[in-house]
Amino acid sequence: ACTSDNAVNVQQSTGASGGQGGYGYKIAVVTHGSAGDAFWSIVKNGVEKAGSDMGDTISYSSDGDPQKQAQLIDAAVNQKVDGLVVSMANPDALKASVEKAVAAGIPVITINSGASRSKEFGALTHIGQDEKVAGEAVGTELKNQGIKKAICVIHEAGNVGLEERCAAVASTLGAPIENLQVDINNLQSSQATIKAKLQSDTAVDGVVTLGGPVASVAAAAIGEAGSAAKLATFDLNADVAKGVQDGKILFAVDQQPYLQGYMAVTMLTQYKSNLNVLGGGQQVLTGPALVTKDNAAQIAQLAAAGTR
Amino acid sequence: MSVGIAADERVARVGLLKRVLLKPELGALLGAVLVFVFFAALSDVFRSPGGVANWLDPASTLGIMAVAVALLMIGGHFDLSAGVQTGTAAITSGLLTTYYGVNTWAALAISLALVLAIGFVNGYLVVRTGLPSFIITLGTFLMLQGLNLGITKLVTNTVQINNFDKIIGYDVLHAVFASEITIAGADFQIAILWWVVATIAGSWLLLRTRFGNWIFATGGDANAGRNVGVPVARTTITLFMITSLAAWFVGTTQIVRLTSIQAQAGFGQELIYIVAAVIGGCLLTGGFGSAVGASIGALIFGMTSQGIVYAGWDADWFKFFLGAMLLLAVLANQYIRRFAELSRR
Amino acid sequence: MSVGIAADERVARVGLLKRVLLKPELGALLGAVLVFVFFAALSDVFRSPGGVANWLDPASTLGIMAVAVALLMIGGHFDLSAGVQTGTAAITSGLLTTYYGVNTWAALAISLALVLAIGFVNGYLVVRTGLPSFIITLGTFLMLQGLNLGITKLVTNTVQINNFDKIIGYDVLHAVFASEITIAGADFQIAILWWVVATIAGSWLLLRTRFGNWIFATGGDANAGRNVGVPVARTTITLFMITSLAAWFVGTTQIVRLTSIQAQAGFGQELIYIVAAVIGGCLLTGGFGSAVGASIGALIFGMTSQGIVYAGWDADWFKFFLGAMLLLAVLANQYIRRFAELSRR
Amino acid sequence: MTDSPLLEIRDVTKTFGNVISLSGVSTTVRAGQVTCVLGDNGAGKSTLIKILSGVHQPDGGELLLDGKPVRLGSPREALDAGIATVYQDLAMVPLMAIWRNFFLGSEPTKGWGPFRRFDRATAIETTRRELLDMGIDIRDPDQPVGTLSGGERQSVAIARAVHFGARLLILDEPTSALGVKQAGVVLRYIARARDRGLGVVFITHNPHHAYPVGDRFLILNRGRSLGDFAKSELSLAELTRMMAGGAELEELAHELERDPAATGKAPQ
Amino acid sequence: MTDSPLLEIRDVTKTFGNVISLSGVSTTVRAGQVTCVLGDNGAGKSTLIKILSGVHQPDGGELLLDGKPVRLGSPREALDAGIATVYQDLAMVPLMAIWRNFFLGSEPTKGWGPFRRFDRATAIETTRRELLDMGIDIRDPDQPVGTLSGGERQSVAIARAVHFGARLLILDEPTSALGVKQAGVVLRYIARARDRGLGVVFITHNPHHAYPVGDRFLILNRGRSLGDFAKSELSLAELTRMMAGGAELEELAHELERDPAATGKAPQ
Ligand SMILES: Nc1ncnc2c1ncn2[C@@H]1O[C@H](COP(=O)(O)OP(=O)(O)OP(=O)(O)O)[C@@H](O)[C@H]1O
Ligand SMILES: Nc1ncnc2c1ncn2[C@@H]1O[C@H](COP(=O)(O)OP(=O)(O)OP(=O)(O)O)[C@@H](O)[C@H]1O
Ligand SMILES: [Mg+2]
Ligand SMILES: [Mg+2]
User: Fold this and answer.
1) Which residues form a coiled coil (chains B, C) (predicted)?
2) Which positions in chain E touch C283 (Cβ < 8 Å)?
3) What are residue A206's phi and psi, to 5 degrees?
4) I want to staple A139 with a disulfide (CB 3.0 to 4.6 A). Which of A172, C311, D69, D127 is the partner?
């Protein structure tokens, strides 16, 4: 018997559908997030919502390999899009392609990473901030909690963004911090690895994870290892929001990825139609905001809907 | 001129030890002992009951897959989609129950039927087209990866499915797939038990049944097999479906254990399954190998990947140590076999 | 009773078309045409000079690797470390020049020597131990991945190396590895030229030299080859070193083009090289295939991955489309060959 | 003679792409008789045999089993119809143990339902016995077939076919790799099978092997039949002559002997 | 006779693990003479041959080439010493074209430096000619060896060894898969090689093939030598008898003929 009251995840539809008619611009978004990455999936949701709100046509593509990302930018330029949104984890690698887009008269907005080089390449503005800022916020907060020794769980070896986050945490923590590598695609084994670390090094009293799914298994691992370590994480999802509410997770740092995507498209649309640039070309910050026990409840519902 | 079987003058004596060493599994077993001793010497937590329970855990799900993949490899094929299928199974069960309110058991049955169908399609295409399974399953691997993400995104608007613990009957599922058994003060996952069961079942199938004989023939020389009446096509398709069955089991274990599943789950694990099977002595070209060997391969991999953490080595070098340990394990295994073969053949 | 060669009554006539279709490369070529027509119909940018230049670009570096990997596969081996070696080469050159101030040419020579040494070790271990190359190179793959990350982290404290454009002689390097040639208003990467050169060189090596004959023999039946005096060990090692050479070239292209390199560069590409070779008709079991075929395989892959973007399909489903296109391409290829073989064999 | 032959081959034709391997070949095999197929290398003997054993399907002509047209779509169907074959390439899996190869495709089982299993003891015992019967005393039935000598391997394949051949036994050059003693054993096997009432198809290049046991002789040349004779229509000498090469051996013997004066004149 | 033989084999022993394949076997091969090695299946003939051609190294005993002890560490070394072999398993790569197989390992080249290349035209032409010489008229030298009939394949291997055998030619059962005509051609080849002054080692199960061309006969049984005879010491009848099985064939012929009354009594 199929009873739909068993459907525990069914969501309320959020937001009204996009404006009819609209501006009709063609906007390409090219990021360095790997497919299926939780953070970038929220950015994509923001981009698409803005597209439907503004009545623009969006094409979103991404590749973690800088050379391939550059080729995707070239493809967008070939298609003569009206605007381009780029995240620049490796600005040097994208320089030629971004400049080519600017030279072709396509307005470019950079998001997430690459703030320092944005202007130099000829982008209108930058939205969001480097992982560094968020990382420093986490480090500071953990320092306030009196953490003596921490581990930073990297779930994709060699990923620039993740490494930046850990490095930034280390820079403000003022206590020893060790990186630990796990495999995001095998969370069960990730849990065992985190547990192994906590079992073998009982001095660890702080755990930093860099994404929602890993935070959940880290919480479980802390419990199973009988460790008293405190857990902080980057990025949100429904489980993380709940974990924060339950006190299993100390706090989560939120860069509001949805906003990075949404605002980039909106601003390009406004620029194309009205030559407006928010902040007059200065970097627009989207965070970091700390999600703690106090505000987690409100956000949980939104995280489940994929907008926070 | 003919001599009794028991005393052929052309056969020299062979010691029991050397006979034992010749079994491929036992070479791998010695490798496993070596790895264990190595890490046990470096870290006493590693050899404590809690430590053992911890590194047996990742080895268990890997082992279940490795046994199925080993059978497939002995039958002469690869399944690159095996890892992603674990995700497909879990995502299907998760979406059906938590989003569409389908009855838990019906949902599990549907997801099982789905992955078995995928296995069937893999096998059917391989048999029908004669293309290498590597390329066929790479195609399904990519397609499933896209489907897992695309559908999860479409339905949930996020890249993961939560709240699996809220479904009806979760208690039963938890008991079957994710309960823990306390031995010597440490909690051992029930998956370890299922791993042992899978290994025994795989060995039995391979060595004691007609189907096992067909597996060896299909991988060893499909043409010769066909000529003496082995149903090569049916054997191949069944092997792919067995792999899918294992993927369903492991995927279900995962979603029950974690109560949530990600769209990318299982991606990239297919190579690790193959590695475990190969460490355990399976030939990549088919026709040779064992289920027990594959299980020991999984054990070596599990011990090594967790052992590095227990030993406290720098995480940046993790992959380096992992690679070095793997290479050492297979080389030691090989060396032992060579040594033993010097006195038999 | 003996009849002249030209008119053996047992040989039926075969049309030229069918003869042509039988070449494995031509089957793949038709697949490529199919893919091209498909995307060209969906997007006119795809078929514009700019679009062509764009999808030829990823195909070119992939193609260079695919040719080398195809030779290795024809010789009966895999190199899972091929992708990571491109990163190793680039990281070595990058670190030596930008961090240690080594002369540019000396640094390039050192990095070349290093990856050739890696290729030698791969080959030597495979030849010496008799273990499958899959497992040996998986070991070096993991080790190199760890080394690339560990050393980059150690020296730069980040995971990428920048400022390669600040080194002495960068202009020359840029002209050789990363300049662009404008044809019909579109900028074509010089790598496309090198790709053509590599394909011709690979074909020549394979079909016109003694070494090529040895490659086929090594992969087809190493034992038979050994018995008639083919230096199987030397051939195998050389093939691994050729793969390393290609990896060095591609890695250098990458760091010169991007002026920076990431520690994880090249990781995961090894499978794509193999896919390209297999789409192009190389047998996974060795002994059969062609360099031209591998190049066409790279072309199909490049067209498909960029074509999906030009067609404007949702990125979440990217992998699904990629998988479906690959499967269709190989199936079409296979179908054409079967059809042609119906009238020859 | 019974009126309806066990197997009748009518005008069978087979082409591989543009190679015509067989064209318009006919013969009959009767129960309790041996039909020999003779001919040069590449004459199409193995092709004919593969059609009889279901490996290939003919492009033209038909096969009649007990007078009824049959289509042997696969080796399995042929085996089920009681036709067992010793292939020229032996159809053995080199990595598998002798006893596993012996029973491959026709494994004896015991137990029932999910516990139905390969009856190893029976299989090993039978293998050892059947091979001993052939004069092959294997050291270890667990030895992989790939490590046997060429002749040993051939003996295993023959023993297998004899064991499973219920009505028709086909042997493609079974004696070519065998020693004199073993070849004798095989000929005796063929005679014994014949006497048990089986039909036998026997391919060989050696007329001295064919003539003693054969009842009919089908002679192929370059894919065509040169004739299909009963033993009564042919003498050994005629048979040998027909096999393209004739009494050449005798003549050759003289030719090969060198002129005695030259003997020992070994150039450095 | 010259005093120093081309090749002398002294007390050679070879074991594989616990299997003793050869023990204490000796013989000589002289230039311009044929040494035949005869024996049952599994007697160790192929093992001896593989020692002579560098595939295996003996565990005991020694080989003397021109009176000097040599160690043939690999097939390449044997080839370089002028020893060419036709292996029982032929040593051909099935997926490669005939002409590529023919010249495998000894490819003719033209051009120099980086432009040194395989001389295809010469290779194809030579292959075609050498095979025609053997009476094999191949349709297309580009055909993969795997699609040839068993006998055609054997002919290619023999033609190759004859072409490359500079001083010593070894043939392991070269005639076993051949038709009468082709077998005759091979025997003539052996005689011709002998007359050109080459030493030949010839393995066969057929005394009728061995006796006409042989000068010495080494008879093996279960890895041991039963004796090493010059032709003058042995008649064909004695040789046949020694080959375990003796004049059995004759006798067998009678045995196999059934009692005439029974003929035709074909059980249904
Ligand atoms: N699968 C195939 N594809 C193409 N040609 C084939 C195939 N099988 C056989 N032939 C060709 O058909 C012809 C007959 O081959 P077949 O094997 O039947 O000869 P045969 O009489 O058994 O010879 P032998 O005495 O040497 O075994 C040969 O010329 C062979 O090359
Ligand atoms: N590589 C090996 N490993 C183990 N045993 C072997 C090996 N090679 C040969 N033997 C054994 O050595 C013995 C002699 O084999 P060999 O091949 O020399 O026989 P042969 O005289 O050539 O027989 P045939 O006439 O059947 O070809 C056989 O019993 C065989 O099983
Ligand atoms: Mg034949
Ligand atoms: Mg032999």
Assistant:
1) none
2) 95
3) -145, 135
4) A172
